[in-house]
Amino acid sequence: MTDRLDLLIVGAGPAGMAAAVAASAAGRRVTILDDNPAPGGQIWRGFSTAAAGTYPGAKPLVALHRSLRDHTVDIRSRTRVISTPAPRTLRVQDDGGAADYSYQDLILATGARERFLPFPGWTLPGVLGAGGLQALVKSGLSVRDKRVVVAGSGPLLPAVAATLARHGARIQGIFEQAPLDRLARFAFTLAAHPGKILEGLRYRVTTLSAPYRTSSWIVSAHGAEHLESVDVCIGDTSRRLACDYLACGFHLVPNLELPLLLGCTISDNCVAVDANQQSSLPHVYCAGEVTGIGGLEKALCEGEIAALSSAGKSAAHLFERRDRLARFARRLDVTFAPRRELAQLATPDTLVCRCEDVPRGALETCHSWREAKLHTRCGMGPCQGRVCGPATNFLFGWQQESVRPPLAPARVATLAAPPPSQ
After folding, report:
1. Which segments of the chain have a pLDDT < 70?
2. What is the CA radius of gyration of the chain?
3. Nearest in space to 298 (alpha carbons), one of 279, 318, 326, 276
4. What separation in angstroms does the CA of 42 have from each of 14, 35, 48, 75, 296?
5. pLDDT value at position 220?
6. How far apart, in whole angstroms, are the C-alpha atoms of residue 252 and residue 250?
7. CB under 8 Å to 105, separation ≥6 — which residues?
8. What is the pLDDT of residue 203?
9. Is 388 exposed, middle or buried (0-12, 13-18, 19+ CB in 10 A)?
10. What digits encode the pLDDT tens for the residues 301-334?
11. 93-127 burial string, b = 16+ CB within 10 Å, else e?
12. Cα→Cα distances 403→18, 27, 215, 223, 358, Å
């Protein structure tokens, strides 16, 4: 079955929600596809009206949820894009089966994921992504009285630590690999974003009992069958901390699989777009983290611009604000860029590709992502390079040259279905 849609949006995070509301208000019939149980993306996962005040951007969150209901936007949750079987058509899969959706216009708001960098012991149970542990806690995992170390890089770390502390975790420390001088320069630029300063202060107040250290990173994790302790490099010293969980992530990387599959131009590891958020492909617009990691406000602004532009309406009144937020995004990248010392942590027997059990030593003789896939199967497991791809980019400078369907695990019937008739 092929559904023909007016405007199709992939991703129901802040950018996708903002785009849906603006496009619906402009008279378009909007359908959103999202693989989560409910709209909100990662930042607003598990939203409830009663707890709305604990989420970043609580006011726009509540307003968008209300507007989505008022505009009767068609939201199809638990739905994953699998492939593109024909021009301007996406094949999707949900619990009920598969379907092909043809569209007049498409907005990609596919968000971002954490970047993981390998170190000895990073595959131990109890070592999780910072955002991953936060999501598990929001979904019901109890961390009360658990000892948690939060480490890596990026503004997500204080937010995660605050969430865990509110749920009763004992934060052993927050360890940021970026040096203090970089963070100080970044903090100075926040004068133009007072809301972010207040948000950061709220996070720090919640975790005031936990030390916050800069120029610090996890060297190794230890444990027999589960994480028991971590070694942390703090400046020129090393310290071992007992813990039950390590929440570790090195900023974020855009989810580029679908844009790459469609053929969008990629520049500086994000989708290249024009002033109207249109990609290099006609009728395909992109918004949010997929165009550069910039946070909530940038995602909301770009989502609205993409929606208005796709509807043939001017979004020029939003350009100045969007450009200011894009400059903030570039400063984020510079501030939280991983230091080169992190590339030396993984030993020859440290796994880099967790899906296919490929250690660093097996990759040292390869010269490209393609060669590594052919010789070691790196990147060919269930995650399709979503974890080891960014890691090998950092370790060896390799670029993922192409993406092939399926974009997610799919039923044989979904893959075998014939392309729709055009």
Report:
1. 1-3, 46-58, 422
2. 21
3. 326
4. 9, 11, 14, 17, 11
5. 98
6. 7
7. 6, 7, 8, 283, 284, 285, 310
8. 85
9. buried
10. 999 999 999 999 999 999 999 999 999 899 999 9
11. beeeebbbbbbebbbbbbbbbbbbbbbbbbebebb
12. 28, 34, 35, 36, 20
Sequence-distant (≥ 6) Cβ neighbours of residue 7 within 8 angstroms = 23, 28, 29, 30, 31, 103, 104, 105, 106, 107, 307, 310, 311
Structural contact between residues 299 and 270, judged by C-beta atoms closer than 8 angstroms = no
Q: Cβ atoms within 10 A of the Cβ of 169, count?
A: 25
> Can you tell me the distance from the alpha carbon of 190 to that of 359, in angstroms, rounded to the nearest whole number?
41
Residue keyed to tokens 């940021």? 176
Tokens (6 digits) for 34: 């999202």
pTM: 0.91
Q: Residues 363, 367, 369, 371: is their CA dihedral positive or negative?
A: negative
pLDDT on residue 56? 65
User: Is 52 exposed, middle or buried (CB count within 10 Å of its CB: 0-12, 13-18, 19+)?
Assistant: middle
Q: In this structure, how many other beta carbons lie within 10 angstroms of the beta carbon of residue 91? A: 25
Contact present, 156 and 253 (Cβ < 8 Å): no
